[in-house]
């Protein structure tokens, strides 16, 4: 008996070293990351891949930039992680072999519970699928792991931006990767809650501004215009909402170089001018979409750009309800709730600020189980049925929905065959 016990202990140790002991070690893990504009879309998809039972579990960091899903798929345990950093990581990390530490990113370690709240049972309205949601986990609850699937808002060639001063990215060669455009990611222009148009007399506020032209946006972000009054607008305070401020200096909420949101902004909006490079109290650079959201929410005279689905944070019931709002770009909106089809402007080429969201993979195998899970993720993210089910699908679009396409991020737009009466 003693010999048997001794043998079993040795065998258990050997299995543990081989990564075969226990359920956790047997789980197939898919580590994805990059695009922060795509963090909501990317982390909505996994629920589609999970079995309904046992209930899937979702874990989120306090800043919502790291999400981990734990569930069964086909009866087998899987982990799907996403880390939102910047789109250039969605390319660069994949250009390194998985064995190279340079391919690693920090992901949320769901086994660490510091700061976590929950779980709370959540039901997805579209199909009734449920999961346990744990939120607020300490941002430092991380583990460094190689990336298997990289997400980018733009093609590698679209990276050629600078800002803040001293930070520059060059075009990336993603030709050695397997890259699939899975969905259309639209972006929006937001302004702080204090920005208002003027009444007919030009002496008082008259509510939210409706929109900005592309030329106005170029002048604002290049700092040719630094005060809302130069464009015929003004700002108000909470204390005196009926009185225009004497001065209305603009605070810019921008992304740092390496951001796909910034690259798409540069390609489709900042055509004849370059964003300012100098960081200061009125020119705020952020490494992720969550940083821009914080900048907008905290600065009532601000203007910034983000993924269109971020508007839910400023809508009634959102974490930053009423602190900023979306404005039209050259008369169009990525999501216009006043229309029968809110995505009409996007689908019909009436709105320019969008790109194809790309998922990048190495051509070398990551292992049969990871390869299969990654392919299932790509296939699901590409499906029009997914857009119809997940919350971000109300803002994003599938390629099938679009009446237009473009071969490169900057365009030009190409009309697809057909009459497209939905665009009239």
Mean pLDDT over the residues: 94
Largest sheet: 14 strands, mixed
| Beta-strand share of residues | 25-35%
Shape: globular
Distance between the termini: 83 Å
Q: What level of helicity do the residues show?
A: 10-25%
Quickly count the helices. 11
How many strands appear in the DSSP assignment? 21
Poorly predicted runs are 1-25
Structure description:
With 424 residues, the chain is an alpha/beta fold. 21% of the residues lie in helices and 28% in strands. It contains eleven helices and 21 strands. Strands 1, 2, 3, 4, 6, 7, 9, 10, 13, 15, 16, 17, 18 and 19 form a 14-stranded mixed sheet that branches. Strands 12-11-14 form a three-stranded antiparallel sheet, with no helix packed on it. A hairpin with a 4-residue loop joins strand 2 and strand 3. The longest helix has 16 residues, at 2-17. The radius of gyration is 23 Å and the shape is globular.
Topology (elements, then pairings):
Layout: H1 2-17, H2 22-26, E1 28-34, H3 39-44, H4 46-49, E2 57-61, E3 66-73, E4 76-84, H5 89-92, E5 104-108, E6 117-123, E7 130-137, E8 142-146, E9 149-152, E10 178-192, E11 195-198, E12 205-208, E13 211-212, H6 214-221, E14 233-235, E15 251-255, H7 260-268, E16 283-286, H8 289-298, E17 302-307, E18 324-329, H9 344-347, E19 354-361, H10 368-382, H11 384-389, E20 404-405, E21 414-415
Parallel strand pairs: 1-4, 1-9, 2-7, 13-18, 15-16, 15-17
Antiparallel strand pairs: 2-3, 3-4, 5-8, 6-7, 9-19, 10-17, 10-18, 10-19, 11-12, 11-14, 20-21
């Amino acid at each position: 008996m003693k010999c048997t016990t001794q043998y079993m202990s040795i065998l258990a140790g050997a299995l543990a070293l081989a990564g075969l002991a226990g359920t956790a070690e047997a789980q197939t893990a898919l580590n994805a990351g990059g695009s922060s504009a795509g963090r909501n879309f990317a982390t909505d998809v996994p629920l589609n891949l999970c079995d309904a039972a046992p209930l899937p579990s979702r874990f989120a960091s306090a800043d919502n930039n790291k999400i981990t899903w734990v569930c069964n798929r086909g009866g087998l345990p899987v982990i799907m992680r996403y880390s939102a950093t910047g789109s250039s990581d969605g390319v660069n990390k994949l250009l390194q072999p998985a064995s190279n530490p340079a391919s690693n990113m920090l992901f949320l370690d769901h086994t660490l519970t510091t700061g976590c709240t929950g779980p709370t049972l959540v039901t997805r309205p579209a199909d009734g699928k449920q999961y346990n949601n744990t939120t607020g986990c300490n941002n430092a609850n991380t583990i460094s792991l190689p990336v298997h699937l990289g997400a980018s808002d733009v093609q590698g060639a679209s990276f050629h931006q600078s800002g803040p001063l001293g930070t520059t990215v060059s075009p990336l060669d993603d030709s050695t990767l397997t890259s699939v455009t899975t969905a259309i990611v639209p972006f929006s222009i937001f302004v702080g809650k204090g920005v208002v148009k003027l009444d007919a007399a030009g002496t008082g506020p008259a509510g939210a501004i409706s929109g900005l032209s592309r030329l106005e946006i170029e002048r604002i972000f290049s700092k040719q215009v630094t005060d809302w009054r130069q464009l015929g607008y003004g700002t108000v305070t909470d204390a005196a909402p009926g009185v225009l401020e004497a001065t209305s200096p603009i605070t810019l909420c921008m992304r740092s170089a390496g951001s796909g949101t910034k690259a798409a902004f540069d390609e489709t909006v900042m055509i004849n001018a370059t964003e300012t490079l100098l960081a200061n109290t009125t020119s705020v650079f952020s490494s992720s979409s969550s940083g821009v959201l914080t900048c907008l929410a905290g600065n009532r005279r601000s203007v910034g750009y983000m993924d269109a689905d971020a508007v839910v944070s400023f809508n009634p019931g959102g974490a930053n309800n009423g602190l900023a709002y979306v404005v039209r770009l050259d008369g169009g909106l990525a999501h216009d709730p006043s229309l029968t089809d809110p995505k009409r402007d996007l689908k019909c080429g009436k709105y320019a600020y969008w790109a194809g969201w790309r998922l990048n993979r190495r051509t070398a195998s990551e292992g049969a189980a990871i390869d299969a899970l990654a392919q299932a993720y790509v296939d699901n993210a590409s499906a029009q049925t997914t857009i119809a089910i997940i919350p971000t699908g109300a803002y994003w679009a599938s390629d099938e929905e679009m009446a237009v396409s473009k071969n490169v991020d900057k365009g030009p737009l190409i009309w697809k065959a057909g009459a497209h009466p939905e665009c009239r």
